TrEMBL record:
The reaction(s) this protein catalyses: IMP + NH4(+) + NADP(+) = GMP + NADPH + 2 H(+)
Functional summary from the UniProt entry: Involved in the purine-salvage pathway. Catalyzes the NADPH-dependent conversion of GMP to IMP.
Annotated gene: guaB1
Protein family per UniProt: Belongs to the IMPDH/GMPR family. GuaB1 subfamily.
Keyword ATP-binding found: no
Necessary cofactors: a monovalent cation
Active site: C303 (thioimidate intermediate)
Lineage of source species: Bacteria, Bacillati, Actinomycetota, Actinomycetes, Pseudonocardiales
Pfam families registered for this protein in UniProt: CBS, IMPDH
Domain CBS, residue spans: 92-153
InterPro entries per the UniProt record, alphabetical: Aldolase_TIM, CBS_dom, CBS_dom_sf, GMP_reductase, GUAB1, IMP_DH, IMP_DH_GMPRt
Entry keywords, A to Z: CBS domain, NADP, Oxidoreductase, Purine salvage, Repeat
Organism: Saccharothrix mutabilis subsp. mutabilis
Full protein name: GMP reductase
Length: 479
């Protein structure tokens, strides 16, 4: 990465402050760009979903891993619940999505309660043996009594295909409608998966992030308090593929001892630790055993740290400095927080990160764990909240005595409620992944890079004024 002449900054920069300059390219197609990471986590796209309770749960983990990203389960989830989620994710099919199922005697109201849990807009009606009888979508549930039984509204013209049907053939079988679904069935005709035309296209474009046994990968976070070693051992036993040791101030001695304890549990499992924003922080965490250092203090959408404390660092410069240090030590960084547009992921990679971590943006999707709500204008949204907010701290300390809880409640560095709207044109996390990876692929070809590593090497950047950033925004309503 280099700045164009005369643009070398004397102050720290945010993503909005910088732009990428195109350069001569020999990369003929955006599909010729390999987005896989080289940080040992096995991700095939450079996107990690943040360990936030409002963002990262089992459906997010399954869906994002199938497209090559990694989801970090939050440290606030009880160890037995993490074990249960991990084994559930590991049992998912790496290509076919998990179907939502109901019985023929269930009602339209049951289907409507379930249908937005996933983006494929279908509930499959199955018999007692799990064989598909028909498919119900939202349209079939509209304009009928909510108590209508599903066998009266289900579309029985199902497309059932063997699970080993190549996605390209699934796509061709479904024809022009990207939202029609195919059902994946086993040799006994039992339902095992579901795929839309769009899902079939994605299955050809993305590569799932899988472990050595071909099962979807998942990461999990651990805090720095309590018996960290025992927690790490429990997560490894549960089958977690990457451990993330996470606390607000990652450059503290409690983190260093926690990290050493985690590293001791396994010499090979990828260990991520953070958050820091300085080269010294990176050095200390790498020395204590981190393979990847998580960078970012204050850029998060739910985060009030900078307003409360004045502490933090504009994210682009923090990532650039920390990535340079990690690279000098043969290690990596994840750019954590502040991603609002696909361009921010491209800029994090240009700065040298191996992946960008996204939280709040993904809270506003079907796959995040929260309940779906409608606002006064009828628009869909989900609630999000910060992991250092009163809401999260009070949940985390629920087993402490009242005095300790009250004491911990004094420190609040996050928002307790916010509404993350579902973009009607991109309501599923895969829609957002499509948009981000399209932006990043394109950015790579503008720089003449066919890998993420080459992109960092070749990226040429400049600094822009607020007017420069504003000029780049689309103006859909005229001016
Ligand atoms: N990236 C960011 O900008 C930030 C992220 N977060 C996220 O919030 C979640 C909760 O993290 P966290 O608040 O660290 O909670 P943890 O449960 O991980 O506890 C942090 C521990 O560190 C001690 N500590 C010392 N100094 C600090 C400090 N300045 N801030 C916080 N703890 C400190 C605390 O002691 P004591 O309570 O006695 O002081 C406590 O024992 C994590 O997921 C974290 O990533 C939170 C803030 C900023
Ligand atoms: N200071 C705080 N930071 C928080 C809190 N909850 C999460 N976070 C950080 O934000 C990123 C995600 O950033 P986003 O812009 O994509 O939402 C996450 O990974 C944490 O590092 C919080 O309560 N306070
Ligand atoms: K912020």
């Amino acid at each position: 990465m280099r700045f164009i002449e005369g643009h070398a900054p004397s102050y720290d920069l945010t993503y909005d402050d910088v732009f990428l300059v195109p350069s001569r390219s020999a990369v003929e197609s955006r599909f010729g760009v390999d987005l896989s990471t080289s940080d040992g986590t096995g991700a095939t796209i450079p996107i990690v979903v943040a360990n936030m309770t409002a963002v990262a749960g089992r459906r997010m983990a399954e869906t994002v891993a199938r497209r090559g990203g990694l989801v970090v389960l939050p440290q606030d989830v009880a160890p037995d619940a993490v074990a249960e989620i991990v084994s559930w994710v590991k049992e998912r099919h790496p290509v076919w999505d998990t179907p939502l199922t109901l019985a023929p005697g269930d009602s339209v109201a049951d289907a409507l309660n379930l249908i937005h849990k996933r983006a494929h807009n279908a509930v499959v009606v199955v018999d007692e043996d799990g064989r598909p009888l028909g498919v119900v979508d939202e349209a079939a549930c509209t304009g009928v009594d909510r108590f209508t039984r599903l066998h009266d509204v289900a579309d029985r013209r199902v497309v059932s295909l063997a699970l080993d049907t190549p996605p390209r053939d699934v796509f061709d079988r479904l024809g022009d409608d990207p939202h029609r679904v195919a059902l994946g069935v086993d040799g006994d005709g039992r339902l095992r998966g579901i795929m839309t035309g769009l899902g079939a296209l994605r299955a050809e474009v993305y590569t799932p992030a899988v472990d050595a046994e071909g099962r979807l990968r998942v990461a999990a976070a651990i805090g720095v308090n309590g018996d960290v070693r025992a927690k790490a051992e429990a997560l490894l036993k549960a089958g977690v593929d990457t451990l993330v040791v996470d606390t607000a101030h990652g450059h503290q001695e409690k983190m260093i001892s926690a990290l050493k304890a985690v590293r001791d549990t396994s010499p090979t499992v990828p260990v991520v630790a953070g958050n820091v924003v300085t080269a010294e922080g990176v050095r200390d965490l790498v020395e204590a055993g981190a393979d990847v250092v998580k960078v970012g203090v204050g850029p998060g959408a739910m985060c009030t740290t900078r307003m409360m404390t004045g502490v933090g660092r504009p994210q682009f410069s923090a990532v650039a400095e920390c990535a340079a240090q990690a690279r000098a030590l043969g290690k990596h960084v994840w750019a954590d927080g502040g991603v609002r547009h696909p361009r921010d992921v491209a800029l994090a990679l240009a700065a040298g990160a191996s992946a960008a971590m996204v939280g709040s943006w993904f809270a506003g999707t079907y796959e995040s764990p929260g309940d779906l709500h409608r606002d006064e204008q009828g628009r869909l949204y989900k609630e999000s909240f910060g992991m250092a907010s009163k809401r999260a701290v009070s949940a985390r300390t629920r087993t402490d005595n009242a005095f300790e809880r009250a004491k911990k409640g004094l420190f609040e560095e996050g928002i307790s409620t916010s509404r993350m709207r579902l973009d009607p044109t991109r309501p599923g996390v895969e829609d957002l992944l499509d948009s981000i990876t399209a932006g990043v692929r394109s950015a790579c070809t503008y720089a003449g890079a066919s890998t993420v590593e080459e992109f960092h090497e070749r990226a040429t950047l400049g600094i822009q004024s607020a007017a420069g950033f504003a000029e780049g925004r689309p103006l859909p309503a005229g001016w």
